[in-house]
Amino acid sequence: MRKSYRVKKEADFQLVFEQHHSVANKMFIVYTMTREQPTHFRLGISISKKVGLRGHERVWVKRRIRQSILEFKPKMRSDLDILVIARPAAHDQDMAIIKKNLEHVFKLANVFVDEETE
After folding, report:
1. What is the DSSP secondary-structure string of 14-50?
2. At CA 6, angle to CA 96 and CA 103, rounded to 5?
3. How close are the terminal C-alpha atoms of the chain, in Å?
4. What are phi and psi of 21, to 5 degrees?
């Protein structure tokens, strides 16, 4: 995923946390914030040491989240900043389960474009 699609700065993360709409399920917490310049969505991923003590475990989960979001990219709204926070239940899950849980929490957060309005 290109850098323009990422929320990288601490100030941007804090802005989404302060002006957020959040939803959660067993594996993920998702914060969303509507932006003024809707060129494309931006994504931030946060994985704490509670998910995996070793760095390579956290990177493993982060890669699967990023790959799932790449597959969802055509269906996602372009006017959002999205933060995905992984919970410890996401550790040691395979790609299909991570993708299924992300899709569930994104539907709750209204991240996908409505197909009826297209």
Report:
1. HHHHHT-EEEE-SSEEEEEEE-SS-SS-EEEEEE-TT
2. 25
3. 25
4. -125, 125
For 70-108, what is each residue's pLDDT tens digit? 999 999 988 888 999 999 999 989 999 999 999 999 999
Q: How many helices (H) and strands (E) does the chain have?
A: 3, 4
CATH architecture, domain defined by 3-108: 2-Layer Sandwich (3.30)
The full set of domain ranges for the chain reads 3-108
The string of pLDDT tens digits covering residues 7-61 is: 777 777 777 878 878 999 999 999 998 888 778 888 889 899 999 889 899 999 9
- Tokens 């239940």, residue? 89
For residues 1 and 78, what is the distance between their CA atoms, to the nearest angstrom?
Answer: 15
